[in-house]
Write a structure and sequence with these properties.
about 0% strand; mainly alpha
Length: about 90
């Protein structure tokens, strides 16, 4: 665990695979899943760039919701269509 902590402090972007490679070069042969378990126990994880999909593009037009405030109380009052392209079966 001390070697894992040492490597994590020097290179925090390395995950269990990179740390296993480092330990193997040091002569310590250990399973990657054991390193994962020890890292979880120590409360450390690799630093990496996370997905950033929630931010809308500033130039994207925001369309109004046209049914807001409309009372839908009988059949065939509101229709919907789907213009997406269907996926091809593999």
């Amino acid at each position: 665990m001390a070697k894992i902590d040492e490597r994590h402090l020097n290179r925090p972007y390395l995950g269990s695979r990179g740390i296993r490679r480092f330990l193997k070069r040091q002569g310590i042969v250990v399973n990657r899943k054991r390193i994962q378990r020890l890292m979880k126990r120590m409360g450390i994880s690799c630093i990496y760039r996370k997905l950033n999909t929630s931010k809308p593009h500033p130039d994207h037009k925001i369309y109004p919701y046209l049914l807001k405030g409309l009372q839908i109380n009988h059949p065939n009052q509101v229709w919907v269509s789907d213009i997406s392209v269907p996926q091809q079966a593999a």
